[in-house]
Design brief:
This is OBAP family protein. This protein is an alpha+beta fold. It has helices at 10-13, 35-47, 51-54, 111-114, 119-122, 129-134, 144-154, 192-202, 206-212; strands at residues 56-66, 69-82, 87-93, 102-109, 126-127, 158-163, 179-182, 232-236, 257-261. The strands form 2 sheets. Strands 1-2-3-4-6-7 form a 6-stranded antiparallel barrel.
């Protein structure tokens, strides 16, 4: 994906449809930002450059769930940087306002690169085919032509996602250890209430978006992706002590063969 492709237009549209509509749901502990700190921030903003942040060129909104736990679902706001035609990276927040919590990161690669990965590595990655074709992954504010160009590039990509702040469970501070996240692959998996609430806030209609993308070319999902569908659940586990969240495969996803990886 070239940086000059339509996604660059999304920078100017982050304040349009979909932006500033989803603040964090609960306050975090700590004192309010002092006047002196705000002054320091303002000065740093003028003096210091932020090339990695300024390289962010697209805003995507979708949904993740914990690998092995279908009930652990959450909306994820992705702010994406295009590194080259086959590699992207995203910082993920629980909202789209300036005080949103940083939840994690996602790495996005092309189908070609995914097919070069070792078998065990592939188990960490999920496909984007269903997310795009179903309309559950959106680029708020992009014109239809730009949206289709962007999503046509993403539909056949694969993502590896780690969440470091489980804001659906830890409402105040980031607790525990990172969790591997997955993307939905079929109808009936995503909580319809989550989807309806997202559509209401962003002023969009997922079903209409789905229809607009019906002729988008999507390849069959590459072998090795979405390992959770075959009961291969991977989550980190502490060598000793507590700290990880429970991740048990739910009945809807079938019986799991727990593959616990020690950090």
């Amino acid at each position: 994906m070239k940086k000059g492709l339509c996604i660059a237009a999304s920078v100017a549209l982050l304040t349009a449809c979909g932006a500033n509509t989803t603040p964090p749901k609960t306050p975090i502990p700590g004192k309010e930002t002092s006047a002196s700190q705000r002054t320091l921030e303002a000065g740093a903003e003028v003096i210091q450059s932020r090339p990695p942040i300024e390289a962010i060129s697209a805003y995507l909104d979708g949904f993740h769930f914990y690998s092995g736990d279908k009930n652990g679902q959450m909306e994820a706001h992705h702010y994406v940087t295009v590194l080259n035609d086959e590699v992207m990276q995203a910082v993920i927040y629980d909202g789209n306002t300036k005080d949103a919590r940083l939840m994690g990161v996602e790495y996005i690669i092309s189908e070609r690169l995914f097919n070069t990965l070792p078998t065990e590595e592939k188990k960490l990655w999920h496909s984007h085919q269903y997310e795009v074709k179903s309309g559950s992954l959106v680029a708020p504010g992009l014109p239809a032509v730009a949206d289709k160009a962007l999503m046509s590039k993403i539909v056949n990509t694969y993502g590896k996602t780690w969440h470091t702040w489980h804001t659906d469970r830890d409402k105040t501070l980031p607790m525990g250890i990172p969790a591997l996240m997955m993307g939905f692959t079929g109808d009936g998996q995503l909580d319809p209430a989550l989807l309806a609430d997202r559509d209401r806030r962003l002023g969009i209609n997922t079903q209409e978006i789905k229809q607009q993308r019906r002729d988008m070319v999507a390849h069959p999902v590459a072998q090795g992706a979405n390992a959770w569908e075959k009961g291969q659940v991977i989550q980190l586990k502490r060598v000793s002590g507590a700290g990880e969240h429970g991740h048990g495969m739910t009945r809807s996803f079938g019986k799991a063969e727990q593959n616990q990886q020690k950090p």
